[in-house]
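Moderator note: this is an archived Q&A kept for reference. The question asked for a predicted structure of one protein chain; the sequence and the answer are reproduced below.
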Amino acid sequence: DAVERSESPMVVTTHDPQNPTIIYANRSHEKLSGYNLRELIGLNPRLFQGKDTNRDSVRILKYRLQHYDYWEGTMTNYTKNGDPYVVRLMIFGVELVNRERLFVAIKKKV
């Protein structure tokens, strides 16, 4: 499918702004982060954050997600091995046909 073959790293999480859990990540994200999908399922996407992740950006992101709002910004994330990388993130909510809400994050390495 197109999402799986996309060169843009993507992660899909549950719609819980306080404690989202990863339900999907495409292969491009696996290559970027070093985590495979099996390792990520059920984990909180905060695992990509670390000492150089901007806390103000995280606070704003959390606020926007609590209001089911779009957020775009640059953030330092970390690979499975602890190496930092900078990404431009677009995070937005989607509502499925069954009215289930999810968050989608699309990353672009800067």
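Archived answer notes: The mean pLDDT is 91.
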